[in-house]
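[job 4471] stage=fold_predict status=RUNNING
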Amino acid sequence: MIVVNDIVKTYGDHKAVDHLSFTLEKGKIYGFLGPNGAGKSTTMNIMTGYIAATSGTVSIEGHDILGEAELAKKHIGYLPEIPPVYNDMTINEYLTFAAELKKIPKKERRDQIAKVLSMTKLGDYGDRLIKNLSKGYKQRAGLAQALIGFPEVIILDEPTVGLDPMQIIEIRELIKSLKDDHIVILSSHILSEVNEICDEVMIISHGKMVERGTPQELEDKFSSGSKIKLSVLGSEAQIRGALSGIPGLKNIVISEEKNSDGALDCEVDVSGDNDVRIEISKAFATIGVPVLSMNKETKTLEDVFLQVTGVTPATDKKEKTSKFKLGKKKAKEAAEAVIKEDEQKKAAESEIKDDEKIEADKVENDESSVATDAETENEVEIEKNDTEETSDKNEKSEENTDENVKTIDKESEKEEK
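[job 4471] inference complete, writing structure tokens
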């Protein structure tokens, strides 16, 4: 027997488990359900002694999980969500190691290992290295270590994760076979699996127990009525006329367009537990309108789970629609803001480029002007030099001419003499 008494676990200001209490007995499989962050894994870790509760107690087969840890843990087999396997060991080595940790007598180890290998369908893989196994077979190896020693309490956290459909069926059958001699606690997000395997379901939310009972009890408790879906070969007026005379029907919804069979789909809520399908069939038969199909839908475990954890499917749908519209609006506004920001950025960059171009042109013009001035100065200087050179040449020419004249005069004087 497991007795969990008023356990609390806090992390700073956050209360992961909030005064949780329950008792579990041998001969049943208990489903442990809750949304992510509800406190499921924390509760299981406290029950196995992996972590200590802030307050409260857990008793396993009469032994306190903290005060008599070794005696209490002898009665527990635990498969966490990630199997605690050692990749460099073979399966046989790993199970032998687990048996030694659990202090199983040496003479019993071989038989127990052979038995759990057979139970988990690992008989042909005992000498295989765990690192060479698929995810599904690693999961099986983790389950085998939980079973070794055949403890009174077996806690399984998502035991079918990574298994193929055939393996899932085999593991489910194995879990079912364990309940006669063990207390089995199963945590899973697959509600159909919980519905099929578990004798009782415990639903926790925000660290508190919000519902407990068999799957059928929970479905009945939250079924304030049912829904009937029909496919009818008739007009909307004919459908409403036929259904209006049947007591207990409400919220008749008829599709605007015909389905692939040329019929109109219709949904109607039924108050109470009355099955009115016979009355509906007679009503349509009376007016000669064929009914192609008619199905009755009731609350499922999934509907119960969504409702007790704070979100009903209807509310969830409205909330999703509202969030979608709001998200769409925000996304549009964000996109427009980004576009506007890009345009402003481009405009600013363009303005900067224009300013840079103007500045560059100005610099280029200044440089060109300077170059032109320098060129003009050079030309003036060259012209000045040319003028001075020409003047010098003329002066020299005049001097030469004067000298020549003087020479001629002298020669003439000589001749006259």
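[job 4471] summary: The chain has twelve helices and 14 strands.
[job 4471] exit 0
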